[in-house]
Amino acid sequence: MESLSLRRYSAQTTSHRHDHAQLVLPLDGPLEIDVAGAARRLQPGWVCIIAPGERHDFSADPDLPFLTQDAHWLPPALFECPFQPLNGDQQRYLAFMRPLLERGQAPLGMGELWLRLLGKGRGISPRLTRVLAHMDANLSQPLTTAELAAVACLGISRFNQLFASELGTSPALYLQRRRLGRAQDLLRLTGLAIGEVAARVGYQSQAAFSQRFLKALGETPSAWRRHHGGAGLPSANGEQPGR
Fold first, then answer.
1. pLDDT digit string, tens, across residues 162-190
2. How confident is the model over 64-120, as pLDDT tens digits?
3. Are 166 and 61 in contact (CB under 8 A)?
4. What's the 3-state SS for the chain?
5. What span, in angstroms and rounded, lies between the C-alpha atoms of 89 and 86?
6. CA-CA distance, 194 to 169, in Å (whole number)?
């Protein structure tokens, strides 16, 4: 889940928290936001970084657009301060992304590239880089913490500690979010039947997959597909998806 979107906020102050990390970037005007007790009138050219579980209070002119990114992980350097300025390369890439998002034409992987650009020069350790690549290549398999720790050449306890330190979450929760992110891509970009999508992201039961998807995203896979541009795609067996 590295979803990028353009959003607008209410002039009334809203407070909430969520179990994923989030970036918020003003585009045309300021955002009033308080994160972890630090309040800021955030202007264009800055990014607000919200850690998983962190309460944040915010308000803005409802006519102003903001780029928001929900992410299952962030480069560790981004957690050093909740408010950070964008450099020239980052501002140019932001200007490149905006019209694509406005037209609904953002290419797959653009959000991940944006995160890497924000954290350029400070990445995660090579051990965890191997683990994340192994996860992505084997999302259909029943991956265990012991297997992932072995890929990192670490004991389970040390692996869990390193993972939490560098990615801000547990291996199991990261993997769950990665599976759901891949499922969203498959639902939106292919006509695969829901059961096949479930199998490709590691769920043996379509019912279990649908239940987890609904809990995480607030919609069933079929409803999510209809609302995100995948409803017209034929499935592999010729049926309309989600039926």
1. 888 776 678 898 888 788 878 888 888 88
2. 999 998 887 777 667 767 888 887 778 888 888 888 888 887 776 777 778 877 876
3. no
4. CEEEEEECCCCCCEEECCCCEEEEEECCCCEEEEECCEEEEECCCEEEEECCCCCEEEECCCCCCEEEEEECCCCHHHHCCCEEECCHHHHHHHHHHHHHHHCCCCCCCHHHHHHHHHCCCCCCCHHHHHHHHHHHHCCCCCCCHHHHHHHCCCCHHHHHHHHHHHHCCCHHHHHHHHHHHHHHHHHHHCCCCHHHHHHHCCCCCHHHHHHHHHHHHCCCHHHHHHHCCCCCCCCCCCCCCCC
5. 8
6. 28
47, 86 Cβ separation under 8 angstroms: yes
Find the distance separating the first CA and the last CA of the chain, reported in whole Å.
25
Please give the Cα distance from 121 to 60 (Å, whole number): 33
